[in-house]
Amino acid sequence: PISPHDLAHVRNVFSMLLDASSQDGTPAAMKKRADIASRLEDLYGKLESGGVKTACSQKVLQLVKAVEAQDFATVSRVQQELYSVDWEANKNWLMGVKRLIPSR
Question: Taking 70 as the threshold, does the pLDDT of residue 104 lie above it?
C-alpha cells in the first residue's frame, strides 16, 4: 500500500481534474463524471489496500506529479507504461484516468 499522505495527494489531484472536467454541468458531463469517480474509487481502494503492485503505484505517483507540472509528454509516457503493467487487473481505473486527463 502507499502512504496515507501519498494517497491523499493522488485523490486531491484527480479530484481537481474531475471537478474541472465537469464544469459545464450538462447531463452528459455529469454522467461521465460519475463514471470516472467510480473508477477512481477503485484505484484509491487498490492503492490503500496494496491491491496494485509497487511498480504500478509508483507510476501513479509519477503520473500525478507530471499532471501537476503540466508535463503532458511525461503524462502520456507514464500512461502508456501503466497500460503495459497488469492491464487486466487495472483496466477499470486506468480507463477512468485516461478519460480524466486532458489530451494535449
Answer: no
